[in-house]
Design goal:
The structure is a single chain. The protein is an alpha/beta fold. The longest helix is centred in the middle third of the chain and has 20 residues. The strands form three sheets. The chain has a nine-stranded parallel β-sheet. It has a three-stranded parallel β-sheet with strand order 12-11-14. It has a two-stranded antiparallel ribbon with strand order 6-7. It has one domain: Luciferase-like domain (TIM Barrel, Alpha-Beta Barrel).
Length: about 325
């Protein structure tokens, strides 16, 4: 069996998980504390979102910016890998993204995973003055952005002539430490265009869904791989659900009820069916289901942040079942 790996998210505020902490300095301390705990618990990677406004609705609540957080965590940690779920193509010119990612890879000693997606949160786009074109345009920009970044990671003087982006001898020094380049995660499950971009350019895919939905996306991706002449085994399949672990299901339902009261959770049965929710035994069984479908990398979001109960129980009672 392929190596099974597990990531965790750093609580940066996007889901208003830090709202109970008043001082922004203390909020950052919690983000850092959680990262260091995840590293000590044996998680393979730590992740942040690339967003500016909260969900489910903008709330004037702290959201620490993705790449500045990456730089800070690169210095604060020693082993754990660093990922983004996922960088929004439109928020930074891809040439700048190439420079940022190469720098973070060097600062971290070669621990960067680059996650990238087409973007979707139109409220952020409009608020920050970014154009929000139709989906097929955003996905076209995603494809070109990945090509631009890969060129700048590898070429001394990169030139590129695309529909959306152009380079004319762009230099990116230093280059990333990882060879041939940091792993590229492309997030999104659009079947006609996005998964075709994944088939062409990604090292790792990331899409969601209940088991039958996830398996369907996998099959669509593998069909695109055949069409573009790529071996599907070259692309690692990953999943990033929510996770909530307690010793009893009654305790899990209590956590769910608190989240539903905030208007942030779907009905319990549906939530449990599509995520890693339950006792350690139940969650391990769901992980096995996805492994049988071909998933080998799990990056779940702990729904009980800023508490660390799920983070610890998952590491201590679920992860060892697969190592």
């Amino acid at each position: 069996m392929s190596e099974i790996r597990f990531g965790a998210f750093a609580p940066q505020g996007w889901k208003t998980e830090l709202i109970g902490i008043a001082d922004p300095v203390d909020k950052w301390a919690k983000c850092l504390e959680t990262t260091l705990l995840a590293e000590s618990l044996g998680y393979d990677s730590i992740w942040v979102y690339d967003h500016f406004h909260n969900v489910p609705a903008p709330a004037h609540e702290t959201v620490f910016e993705c790449w500045t957080v990456m730089a800070a965590l690169a210095v604060a940690t020693t082993r754990i890998r660093l990922g983004q779920m996922v960088t929004c193509t439109s928020y930074r010119p891809p040439a700048l993204t190439a420079k940022i990612t190469a720098t973070i890879d060097v600062i971290s000693g070669g621990r960067l995973d680059w996650g990238v997606g087409a973007g979707w949160y139109d409220h952020e786009y409009k608020a920050y003055g970014y154009e929000f074109p139709e989906a097929k345009v955003r996905i076209g920009m995603l494809r070109e952005a990945v090509e631009v970044v890969k060129a700048m990671w590898s070429e001394a003087d990169a030139s590129y002539e695309g529909r959306y982006y152009k380079l004319a001898g762009a230099q990116c020094d230093p280059k990333p430490l990882q060879k041939p380049h940091p792993p590229i995660w492309i997030g999104g499950g659009g079947e006609q265009i996005t998964l075709r971009v994944v088939a062409r350019l990604a090292d790792k895919s990331n899409f969601g869904g209940k088991p039958e939905e996830w398996a369907h996306k996998r099959d669509v991706l593998h069909g695109h791989c055949k069409d573009v002449g790529r071996d599907p085994s070259e692309i690692e399949l990953t999943w990033s659900p929510e996770v909530c672990v307690r010793e009893t299901e009654a305790e899990v339902r209590e956590v769910s009820a608190m989240s539903e009261a905030r208007g942030y959770r779907e009905p319990f049965d549906s939530w449990q069916a599509g995520n890693l929710v339950g006792t350690p035994e139940q969650v391990a069984e769901k992980v096995r289901v996805y492994i049988d479908l071909g998933c080998t990398y799990f990056v779940p979001w702990c729904t009980d942040y800023p508490e660390h109960t799920t983070l610890k129980l998952f590491a201590e009672k679920v992860m060892p079942e697969f190592r």
